[in-house]
Amino acid sequence: MTDLSKAQPADRVVPMVRAEAVHKSYGPLQVLRGIDLEVRAGQVFVLVGPSGSGKSTFLRCVNHLEKVDGGRLWVDGELVGYREGRGGRLYELKDREVAHRRRDIGMVFQHFNLFPHMTAAQNVMEAPVQVKGEPRAAARERARALLERVGLADKADSYPAQLSGGQQQRVAIARALAMEPKLMLFDEPTSALDPELVGDVLDVMRGLAEEGMTMVVVTHEMGFAREVGDALVFMDGGVVVESGHPREVLTDPKHERTRAFLSKVL
Ligand SMILES: Nc1ncnc2c1ncn2[C@@H]1O[C@H](COP(=O)(O)OP(=O)(O)OP(=O)(O)O)[C@@H](O)[C@H]1O
């Protein structure tokens, strides 16, 4: 029998991410307290908010690094977590399904997380070889093409320690792209970079957006949000306070909390 509680509304295109009243706690700390949002395919979806508002936690739930403990979360049309009513049974994907579904999601972290003992090309080809079983020669060729795409054709044989932060972050983006993801998640990808290195990383992200990649981006780069974003959500205290087109929210915020936050970052 069909379990209607798991069904998404059938009357429109399935969104890439759909959250309905998503909750997540770490012990007594309630971090997500009812997140509702929808990311459509091809959108650049920007998440902003003060430190501790739950932005990273939400990304980690979408990427199956954390499990939601209330509400319902769908990723690419699949229900990945929900609880049946208050205090009810928790539904979650099995570990094997999680591993499979994580292949379709690329994640770029603030601190790059490259393997230090591998060259740029080896970092990029690692997952296709190890996870997908791609032949090494083909993976190496693709890694070089991806490094060229992020402007690092001449750095394929360099180790992370020989690269600037901005270059390392572009390797990290190439590495995520190597798995041919349907969705890319960026968690403050430029926050750890010297200001003069931020532009190159944002240019790569802008290129991906132009190619139609679906992206959820946690960032404090409001210029990028305004110029490239299709939708923006302001989160505070584990809830969505305000959402809309970036130009609207950034120019004419409706809520006092949004105004207070933007006055600090704009
Ligand atoms: N694994 C964890 N265990 C316990 N508490 C956690 C864990 N991860 C995050 N937290 C806490 O959850 C809250 C929200 O963290 P989160 O990283 O999601 O916020 P954020 O909005 O991304 O903040 P920032 O901009 O500083 O990264 C914080 O109070 C944080 O200390």
Brief characterization of the structure:
The protein is of the alpha/beta class and 266 residues long. Helix content is 35%, strand content 25%. It has a six-stranded mixed sheet with strand order 7-8-9-3-10-11, with helices on both faces.
Could you explain how this protein is built, in words?
With 266 residues, the protein is of the alpha/beta class. The protein has a single domain (17-263), classed as P-loop containing nucleotide triphosphate hydrolases (Rossmann fold), CATH 3.40.50.300. It is built from 9 helices and 11 strands. The protein has a 6-stranded mixed beta sheet, sandwiched between helices. A 5-stranded antiparallel beta sheet has the order 2-1-4-5-6, covered by helices on one side. Strand 1 and strand 2 (29-39) form a beta hairpin. The longest helix has 16 residues, at 195-210. It is globular and about 50 Å long. The N and C termini lie far apart (52 Å). The model has no long low-confidence stretch (mean pLDDT 91). Adenosine-5'-triphosphate binds next to strand 2 and helix 1.
CA distance, first residue to last residue? 52 Å
The fraction of residues in strands falls at 25-35%
Helix percent reads 25-40%
In this entry the ligands are: adenosine-5'-triphosphate
**Number of domain modules:** 1
- Output the strand order for the largest sheet: 7-8-9-3-10-11
Rg over C-alpha atoms, rounded to the nearest angstrom: 19 Å
Number of helices: 9
**Shape assignment:** globular
Q: Strand pairing plus helix content: what structural class?
A: alpha/beta
Poorly predicted sequence stretches spanning 5 or more consecutive residues = none
